[in-house]
Amino acid sequence: MALDITVTDELRYEGIAREFVNRIQNIRKENGYNVTDKITVQIEDLEFVREAIKKYASYIGSQTLATSVTLVKTFDRKNVREIDIDDNILKISVGKV
Fold first, then answer.
1. Pick from 90, 87, 95, 1: which is nearest to 46 by CA?
2. DSSP character at residue 30
3. N or C end of the chain, less CB within 10 A?
């Protein structure tokens, strides 16, 4: 029996999406949001996450209670954080609706 350990683009995108869910949930907790609070998420529009966010925005939103998950070039709020995804630093903002 052979095991195919090839990481396809689709698997990579799914992994990135799951990592975003984890990071967003941690930010929610750090911000003191209630479990039922609706949020909005802005993610820096960088090439290495663009396709993953486009494909999995609804998944990320459903897992984090985000009413929107958007890619942005510039942020319209102050609570921007830097996070590390796959050894790449990018900015993300999570705000309560």
1. 90
2. H
3. N
